[in-house]
């Protein structure tokens, strides 16, 4: 009898944690490749050649799970961390810099709270850019099409699908970092940086049409030093607001999937003559090669209209190939060429680059300001 009780107790100890973890998935991406970038606009900088991490997709590890609450309700969570671009023996994990949120789903749709992807980013990465709008790929649309990737403290709502139509809406009281002591930052500030977003879409068979509208309000004092939010946005002057709209669409012909996007990004400065309006567009293509390969191509242009000075103009073309070795492992290669006019060369917001070795949407000198790029590598997802 005693042996039976002990056996039952051991079985209970072994089964309890297995039951508790049955709805939790560990996932991630490990991506490394060779990357060459050249023709820098920075004086004294020639080219860069290196083995980098996160070349086609950011290296990450995450945990996600769901719990059935009954009555059609489900709770869920995502907790995702990113690794540095080139890990070394002294490298560290950049904790929680990707996603961290909890959600509740039902017949009404999904409500999620926490750090999440911005609806604009999801629209582009899931539907338009064949390279995935990543900051690592030299040919990514993100090099020339400026966007916002993630928002902190976001309350997001994803609607049900009504015959192909759905929408995502979101609002945050502070889109970068923690809430401040008095809901403000900087001298004279009255509130943390706020943002809202709305992105409707229609997807049915080979057709996809989507739109995005979002605004970011910094609420910083004019002439103050950079706020954390402004640093994340890659700015060099204080901003009052960023107002964005985008319209995109794709059609899958089977032999080729074609896409296009057009958008306006109005960055309103808090100082005189610091406003800039970015008018940007791109066309994309993805061509399947056999059952496991695909050719990727993108061409994009951006025009920066400044309050002071002539317009900055940038363009990029890129081509690549990706081949799936299995459902989780792929090899890839890409080449990109960027062109900037003289006004774009001397301004940050007007400039585009194929380097993507910094964290400011690839359009700054911090990463070398390269205008040519080539990469080849391997990516494994688990």
Automatic annotation (TrEMBL):
Recorded GO CC terms: cell outer membrane; pore complex
Keyword Lyase listed: no
Its membrane topology: Multi-pass membrane protein
Signal peptide: 1-20
Porin domain span: 7-341
Protein's GO biological process: monoatomic ion transmembrane transport
GO MF term list: porin activity
Keyword line: Cell outer membrane, Ion transport, Membrane, Porin, Signal, Transmembrane, Transmembrane beta strand, Transport
Known partners and oligomeric status: Homotrimer.
Protein name as catalogued: Putative porin
